[in-house]
């Protein structure tokens, strides 16, 4: 029997990267999917490949989150899994950060998860699971990524608070806090050996992670194998959070 047989899951930010990998892994494990993303063409392609339903959604707008869960209610009479994966970044130094850029990132990364969690909790029965996509930057800081780090820190605390709030209803809430995962965004940063070495020097395992490695954790947190786990954040980071110094990067052929 597959680990997610019969489970109904909503995944945001499912058009690419980690969200796409989670959608693929959930489909392999037997889940039925509603996939949301602002990239309509991308999420439609993932839905076609996984047998899911694509819903073009700008999660920074509460009205569109409402519409997403209206669609879920039309398709199903309940919900078993929510993955709050949608996220964006914006690079700016502290003194240059504009209010509209902070608001956009915070709405996408944090407020969307809050409002989606509200909807999911109304639809879920005991045994439901919510998985939030946090980051090592919920704890660590990057000087020019203020709205991203702040939103991920808030998401970590939302995980804690909502886990306590929903525990009496038998709904678990956990998070995943990846380090550097080889998505298109990471590839755009690691444009040469020097840039790659800067990233790998802070990762004791000496490599980036893959979206599929994160997806396996998302399966664990959604299935019965983690039935006594709630309010936790798992960090697939190659050892980064435990590091208090940089390490030499071996020469690569």
TrEMBL record:
Stated name of the protein: SDR family oxidoreductase
Gene Ontology terms, MF aspect: oxidoreductase activity
Enzyme class: oxidoreductase
All copies of domain Ketoreductase, residue ranges: 7-179
Domain of life: Bacteria
Species assigned in the record: Sphingomonas oryzagri
UniProt similarity note: Belongs to the short-chain dehydrogenases/reductases (SDR) family.
Keywords: Oxidoreductase
Cross-referenced SMART domains: PKS_KR
InterPro entries membership: KR_dom (IPR057326), NAD(P)-bd_dom_sf (IPR036291), SDR_fam (IPR002347)
Entry EC no(s): 1.1.-.-
């Amino acid at each position: 029997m597959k680990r997610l047989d019969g489970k109904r899951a909503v995944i945001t930010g499912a058009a690419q990267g980690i969200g796409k990998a989670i959608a693929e892994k959930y489909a392999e494990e037997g889940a039925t999917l509603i996939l949301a993303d602002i990239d309509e063409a991308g999420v439609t392609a993932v839905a076609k490949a996984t047998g899911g339903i694509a819903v073009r959604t700008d999660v920074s707008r509460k009205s569109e989150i409402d519409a997403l869960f209206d669609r879920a209610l039309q398709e199903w009479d309940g919900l078993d899994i929510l993955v709050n994966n949608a996220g964006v970044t914006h690079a700016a130094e502290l003194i240059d950060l504009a209010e509209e850029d902070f608001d956009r990132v915070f709405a996408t990364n944090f407020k969307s998860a809050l409002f989606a969690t509200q909807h999911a909790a109304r639809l879920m029965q005991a045994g439901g699971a919510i998985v939030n996509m946090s980051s090592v930057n919920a704890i660590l800081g990057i000087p020019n990524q203020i709205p991203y780090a702040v939103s991920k820190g808030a998401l970590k605390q939302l995980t804690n608070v909502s886990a306590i709030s929903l525990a009496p209803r038998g709904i678990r809430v956990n998070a995943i806090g990846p380090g550097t995962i080889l998505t298109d965004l990471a590839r755009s940063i690691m444009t040469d050996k020097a840039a790659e070495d800067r990233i790998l020097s802070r990762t004791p395992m000496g490599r980036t992670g893959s979206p599929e490695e994160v997806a396996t954790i998302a399966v664990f947190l959604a299935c019965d194998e983690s039935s006594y786990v709630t309010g936790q954040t798992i960090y697939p980071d190659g050892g980064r959070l435990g590091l208090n110094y940089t390490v030499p990067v071996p020469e690569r052929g």
